[in-house]
């Protein structure tokens, strides 16, 4: 097995001192262009990579960021992570992602792992039920932290979220304006913070418009679960002509269910998703959805953390991002749906 190259090895090959190599690799010092190129060439030939952890110990700054999220496989989360990674990389940071699967105990272990490895900051989607150890760990170690989607009540963490209640209210009003009266909220499981806020916007609108309901139908936020749940919903509530969905994936699943029922999205039943993942625009039919631009949301999340790292004493930041209703082919007037 080849021996790992050291700074001394680079210095010997380049014919310069250790101090010169160190300055070149850090981009510091007044070094001639000829010497700089010589050192860079030697480092490249030896496949030398600086020890980031050692550098962090010397400088007191770790440029590795930890991210704890739930269900990495969900396209919305994948697009958020992509945005986070792009912004952090452009600022000289590296991000590591762990999936807690909404399990409080696993989440606490993931947070402890990041703290043990001295990450420079944390991006965190808290579990539906937060493990006390998670909060204790973060409080003890004072790690710069930004929560995402779910806010920790009473905590001083910066936060980036979505205007969930306003979003589903907007979607429900739109469907009501199209003439729909029997509208269901479709998707999600349990009453976590985000789903609770989304249901609230839907229910408030039904009450304001004097409409029947509410009908709240659970489903895991996947295509397959959405397909099965939509069939069950139609069997139980055939009067429903429109769905406000908890996410795009479950909405796309509902769209896949309709042909099996002899129905068509946008003509027999209107469906509105939430997130505007990449698949929403290219689906057949294309999905009407509440857009938040997951990649840009990830960039916003990363920017808030970088600002906190650079300005530890700045006031607490709480950003809630509005949604935009993107009308495509899965919605239509009631006349077309019956």
How would you describe this structure to a colleague?
Helix 12 links the parallel strand 9 and strand 10 (288-291). By secondary structure, the protein is an alpha/beta fold. The protein is built from 14 helices and twelve strands. It is elongated, with a radius of gyration of 25 Å. Helix 8 (164-177) runs parallel beside helix 9 (193-209). It folds into three domains: 7-50, no CATH class; 59-162 and 294-322, Rossmann fold (3-Layer(aba) Sandwich); 164-292 and 325-337, Response regulator (Rossmann fold), CATH 3.40.50.2300. The protein has helices at 7-14, 18-26, 33-45, 52-59, 75-90, 104-116, 132-141, 164-177, 193-209, 223-236, 248-257, 278-282, 294-310, 334-337; strands at residues 64-69, 94-99, 121-124, 145-148, 158-162, 183-186, 215-217, 242-245, 270-275, 288-291, 318-321, 324-326. It starts with 6 loop residues before the first helix and ends with a helix. 47% of the residues lie in helices and 16% in strands. Strands 2-1-3-4-5-11 form a six-stranded parallel β-sheet, with helices on both faces.
Label the CATH architecture of the largest domain: 3-Layer(aba) Sandwich
Query: What is the number of strand segments?
Result: 12
Number of helical elements: 14
Fraction of residues in H or I helices? 40-55%
Q: What is the overall shape?
A: elongated
CATH homolog superfamily of the largest domain: Response regulator
CATH level-3 fold name of the largest domain: Rossmann fold
Determine the mean pLDDT.
90
Strand content: 15-25%
Order of secondary-structure elements: HHHHEHEHEHEEHEHEHEHEHEHEEH
The unreliable regions are: 56-60
Give the biggest beta sheet: 6 strands, parallel
Q: Could you give the order of strands across the largest sheet?
A: 2-1-3-4-5-11
Radius of gyration from the alpha-carbon trace, in angstroms: 25 Å
- Supply the helix-strand structural class: alpha/beta
Q: Give the distance, in angstroms, between the N- and C-terminal Cα atoms.
A: 72 Å
Q: CATH class of the largest domain, anyone?
A: Alpha Beta
Count of the separate structural domains: 3
């Amino acid at each position: 097995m080849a021996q790992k190259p050291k700074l001394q090895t680079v210095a010997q090959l380049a014919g310069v001192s250790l101090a010169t190599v160190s300055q070149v690799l850090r981009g510091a010092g007044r070094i001639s262009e000829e010497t700089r190129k010589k050192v860079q060439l030697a480092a490249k030939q030896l496949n030398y990579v600086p020890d980031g952890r050692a550098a962090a110990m010397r400088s007191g700054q770790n440029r590795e960021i930890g991210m704890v999220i739930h269900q990495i496989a969900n396209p919305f989360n994948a697009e958020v992570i992509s945005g986070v990674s792009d912004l952090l990389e452009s600022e000289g940071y590296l991000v590591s992602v762990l999936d807690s699967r909404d399990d409080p105990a696993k989440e606490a272990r993931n947070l402890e792992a990041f703290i043990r490895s001295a990450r420079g900051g944390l991006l965190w989607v808290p579990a539906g039920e937060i493990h006390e150890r998670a909060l204790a760990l973060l409080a003890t170690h004072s790690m710069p932290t930004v929560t995402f989607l779910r806010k920790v009540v009473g905590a001083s963490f910066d936060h980036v979220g979505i205007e969930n209640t306003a979003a589903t209210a907007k979607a429900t009003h739109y469907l009501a304006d199209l003439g729909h009266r029997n509208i269901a909220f479709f998707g999600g499981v349990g009453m976590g913070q985000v789903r609770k806020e989304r249901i609230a916007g839907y229910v408030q609108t039904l009450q304001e418009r004097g409409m029947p309901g509410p009908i709240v139908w659970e489903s895991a936020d996947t295509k397959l679960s959405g397909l099965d749940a939509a069939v069950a919903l139609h069997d139980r509530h055939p009067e429903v002509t429109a769905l406000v969905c908890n996410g795009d994936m479950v909405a796309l699943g509902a769209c896949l269910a309709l042909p099996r029922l002899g129905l068509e999205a946008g003509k027999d039943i209107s469906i509105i998703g939430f997130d505007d993942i990449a698949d929403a625009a290219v689906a057949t039919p294309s999905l009407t959805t509440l857009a938040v631009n997951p990649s840009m949301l990830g960039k916003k999340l990363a920017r808030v953390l970088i600002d906190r790292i650079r300005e530890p004493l700045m006031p607490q930041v709480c950003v809630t991002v509005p949604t935009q209703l993107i009308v495509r082919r899965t919605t239509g007037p009631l006349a077309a749906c019956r």
